[in-house]
Structure formats: C-alpha cells, structure tokens
Specification:
- There is one protein chain.
- The protein is an alpha+beta fold.
- Helices cover 36% and strands 15% of the residues.
- The protein has six helices and five strands; from the N terminus they run αβββββααααα.
- Helix 2 crosses helix 6 (176-189).
- The relative contact order is 0.15.
Length: 204
C-alpha cells in the first residue's frame, strides 16, 4: 500500500506541468558564450536563467528585445497577456547548465520561495506519509532520522503545526525552512534522485 501511494505521487510529478512564475537567477544580455563560437556577440539572443516557483524547474527563457532584468526578480512566464517581459520559454535545463552566478543565487532564491509560500511547505510536515514500511518521507529531509521523525509524528497526533515557528517550538528543529531548501537543492542537483518530494524529474 505504501509503495502504491508513493508511486502514484511520482507518476503525478512526471506529468507535463508548467510554471506560471519564475525567479531570475542570471541574465545573459549577450547570450551564452561557447568555446569556438563564431556567432558575433551582437547576433546572440539574450537568455534569462530562472527557477520556477511551483516545481523548481530550471529554465532558459528568451526575453523581448530591450528588456532588462534584476537578479532574483519574480517574473510571469505563463500564458496570456500578463507575460510582459518573456517572449518564450526556450528549454528546461539541468543544474550543470546553470552559469556560476546562477548556481550561486539558486539556494537563497529557493529559500525566498519557501518564505513566500510557507503554508505549502508547512503542509509537507503535516501530511508527510511513509514511502515504504521502513522509510518515511520525513527522513528524506537532511538531518531527520528516526527519532526526530517520530517526534514529529507524535506531535501531529495532538495538533497539526500552525506555522514554522510552532514547528520549531514543539519539535526543537532549529530551521525547518532550511531543511526543506537543502532537500530541494539536492533534488535539483541529483538527476538520478529516486524520491522527489518537491521537484519535477529532470529533462531527458
């Protein structure tokens, strides 16, 4: 039963899903530079590297001409008239495809998304389920072992956690948001990660 329930979630994550909002990690106004690239700088299309808010999808976006961006700017990339700055999504990319600057920005941006959507990520603690008879989703968080897992489960029998501060007080976790951010980063970096809680599988 545990395997079936978890496999259904993995199957759901693999479905085609689209990001509506993304956060800018890097803006390459003169495009990406490649070794032995013969295309002159003026002919290259600008590229925005960004991470999606819903599924933490890494993306390369093509902006409209003469558009500028700030690092960590939140932009609309969904369909419709609200998309003012992005012409189209060029492709999904892997962590290794990010620029050094984008990699540097990724973790703090993940933390900012968690702060903005606290209810969603708090809900993970309130609804986490067993993966198998021997492993629980909570144990996928860095630093959460059997003892801490049971502390969380036993507290939930009393009441759900109302916010992260409530969680910190009742379980004595120093920073639950950082645990989630580290887990998300692990899922993004590891292309072969079997258990995905917060992210989509990488592009094939």
């Amino acid at each position: 039963m545990y395997n079936k329930r978890y496999s259904e979630k993995i199957k759901d994550l693999s479905k085609k899903k689209y990001e509506e909002y993304a956060v800018v990690l890097d803006f390459l106004a003169r495009g990406k530079q490649k070794p032995r690239d013969k295309v002159p700088l003026y002919a290259k299309e600008p590229i925005v590297q960004a991470v999606g808010e819903s599924y933490f999808t890494l993306l390369e976006l093509v902006p409209y001409k003469f558009t500028s961006f700030s690092i960590r700017e939140r932009i609309f990339i969904g369909k419709g008239d609200k998309r003012k700055k992005i012409d189209h999504v060029k492709k999904r990319i892997l962590h290794n495809n990010l620029t050094a600057s984008a990699k540097f920005e990724l973790f703090p941006v993940i933390e900012s998304i968690i702060n903005r959507k606290e209810k969603r990520f708090l809900n993970f603690f309130n609804t986490a389920k067993p993966i198998t008879t021997r492993m629980h989703q909570l144990e996928l968080l860095p630093g959460v072992g059997k003892k801490l897992m049971w502390d969380i489960i036993n507290e939930l029998k009393k009441d759900p956690f109302s916010d992260f501060e409530d969680l910190k007080q009742r379980i004595k976790i120093i920073d639950p948001k950082k645990l989630i951010a580290k887990r998300i980063l692990t899922e993004i970096q590891n292309e072969t990660e079997k258990h995905r809680i917060f992210t989509r599988p990488p592009p094939s």
